Amino acid sequence: MNACMTNALCLVDSYLKESEATVVSVKDEKYVVLDQTIFYAKGGGQPNDTGVIIRGKDVYKVVYVGKFSGEISHEVDHVGLKPGDRVKCVLNWERRYKLMRSHTAAHVLASLLNKGTGALITGNQLKEDHVRFDFSLEKFDKALLEEYLVKANNLFGTDVPVKWYELPRKEALEIPGIVKMAEAFPPNLPMLRVVEIVGLDRQADGGTHVRNLKEVGKMKLVKTENKGKNNRRIYFKLD
Ligand SMILES: [Zn+2]
């Protein structure tokens, strides 16, 4: 994650489904930078958002969103957008909301596993229909994993707020368990974004989350794979 020159509205209010924006630049006729955006750029295990950018009667499909040289770039399906254009952005909200629920669910599972077994997350990949989750664990025990899923599901039925905010880097890194990824260390920025599941977990994170665990739903185990001590793998999906 780099410092971002585009105002990333989705990291402040993850529930924005539409917004206005101005086109700042267009590269190769289809990579569009806006002054502000509700689209999430792929990163940190979370896929990019999709949706549309609308100018007057022209509708441009957003097929990919990435971060390049500190700018959020929206790849659109056809040419025509020009710098200075006033546009309206509309998210594919159904997809994004699923990813928000999955991302929060993954944090809960990571936190429970980390507290209970000391496991660190070695990889994770959120997809629209399932989540893949890798962690380090001395002994692979499917029954134990299932227990943690039950624990997580019990929490998803309860009223637990989720908050996100920035903290000075030094202060953030003093929080125990703030980094649960085995290899990815937070970006070298003066302020770190923290996602807090109140009473349960605080993690340095640049993703989008739901506001309350009540919104997550139920987590279902799809399958487990044993890829060695540092890659115990679990796939789950949400109802
Ligand atoms: Zn995360």
Keywords:
binds zinc ion, six-stranded antiparallel barrel, 239 residues, four-stranded antiparallel beta sheet, alpha+beta, elongated, 19% helix
Q: What is the strand arrangement across the widest sheet?
A: 2-3-7-6-5-8
**Per the principal axes of the C-alpha atoms, what is the gross shape?**
elongated
Structural class: alpha+beta
Rg estimate, integer Å = 19 Å
Average pLDDT figure:
92
List the helices and strands and how they pair.
Layout: E1 7-8, E2 18-27, E3 31-34, E4 36-37, E5 51-55, E6 58-68, E7 71-76, E8 86-91, H1 93-117, E9 121-126, E10 131-135, H2 142-156, E11 162-168, H3 169-173, E12 191-197, E13 201-204, E14 219-226, E15 232-238
Parallel strand pairs: 1-4
Antiparallel strand pairs: 2-3, 2-8, 3-7, 5-6, 5-8, 6-7, 9-10, 10-15, 11-12, 12-13, 14-15
Helix pairs in contact: 1-2
The structure holds zinc ion.
Structure commentary:
The radius of gyration is 19 Å and the shape is elongated. The strands form 4 sheets. Strands 2-3-7-6-5-8 form a 6-stranded antiparallel β-barrel. The mean pLDDT is 92. The relative contact order is 0.17. It is built from 3 helices and 15 strands. It has helices at 93-117, 142-156, 169-173; strands spanning 7-8, 18-27, 31-34, 36-37, 51-55, 58-68, 71-76, 86-91, 121-126, 131-135, 162-168, 191-197, 201-204, 219-226, 232-238. The chain starts with 6 loop residues before the first strand and ends with a strand. With 239 residues, the chain is an alpha+beta fold. It binds zinc ion (ZN). Zinc ion (ZN) binds next to helix 1.
